[in-house]
Amino acid sequence: MGLNRKVKPVEEPGVISLHSRCNQLEAEGKKIYRFAFGLSPFPLPQIVRNGLANYQASEAFVPVLGKPELREAIAQFYQHSYGLATKASEVLIGPGSKSLLFLLEYAFDGDILIPTPSWVSYSPMAKLTGRKVQWIHTTQASGWKLSAEQIKEAAQQNPERPKILLLNSPSNPTGSVYSLAELKKLAETARDCKMLLYSDEIYSRLQYDGNHMSIAQFYPEGTLISGGVSKWAGGGALRIGYLIVPKQQKELSEALSLLMLESFAATSGPIQDAVLPLFEQHEEVEQYLHQSRRILKALSRELEEMLRNSNLLFSKPEGGFQLLLNFENYRMELSRKGIYSSEDLCKKLLDQTGIALLPGTELGCQHSLLVARLCFVNFDGAKALEAAGEKEVDTSFLLKYCWESIEGVQQLSKWLERL
User: Fold this and answer.
1) Quick check: 232 pLDDT over 70?
2) What domains appear along the chain, each with residue ranges and CATH number?
3) d(CA 371, CA 140)
4) Would the pTM of this model clear 0.85, i.e. be above it?
């Protein structure tokens, strides 16, 4: 069979084979701590469930770019939350933010700049669309954050080529958040370099302090904003996302509109109607977010203390549900066990302890880095939300409702002690 040459070099994502291996080990009776997978632990808000249950059937075609009501609600949300002059005409609705990014990379005739560590799908999508990936490696010392100087250096490579930089804050896989000063500097540099920005804000409403800032506030004409409901509203199964393309990028927007029409054609109408309240001002949604952030922040801080006591390096998360663990302090002990890479490390951990972490090489990290992503989502979010109320989310609460996350990190600490 003849295959498109762009497809052949793209390997199956390691997270898929890791998931299969976990299932196999569980079937054999082994206890598995599923820290490798970033699925929200929380259920869909009831207001969304009600919308799905009460959907009024319609045979009408759904508009390609999204239903006007939802596009307007998202535009109003960004106006209210960030002071942006977003218009409904700039909002594109698709079956997940991932689908829209794929079409964006297909439409964009230039290089894709990806800071590492990064989300697992950024690079494979670029390769599938035939785009050149330009990695920008960040470090533990910088909190795994990109600097303005690195943007300038990247812009000087093949300067005649258009470039789009993928930026994610709060970050998957580190939980890091760019400060106001950092965002301003990055935005200023990107503008000076005539570089577009793709701001992945899928975790924005899980920023622990509830005060997320978008880099689009400082570079509105050159920033595309991506978002969805999978991470902060338990809506992974709904497959809906959006991309805000500023009016100054009209040619790109028109190309995306054509690609949407000739690929998925439209996003499910019932799903669009159901998620509409998530972008309006509803007390139920605000309480859901408040409690979700309280639980995730408290659990993160609890795990951080345990990991710190085990002499592991990491940057303090300020949003989302990820930690990037750096095992550099154990390099000598690990090498004596034949562990020289993040793949070796994660394979050994899974086989010996049942702890599933995602190796740094899946995140674009250099092979020599002993880093791995830990997602602390292996708990019953529905029970935790119900129990939280006005209670203090302290250690006793976490031991009762998030015990598996804590037990898994305890097992990791014991494994390190035995090295």
Assistant:
1) yes
2) 14-43+284-417 (3.90.1150.10), 53-281 (3.40.640.10)
3) 10
4) yes
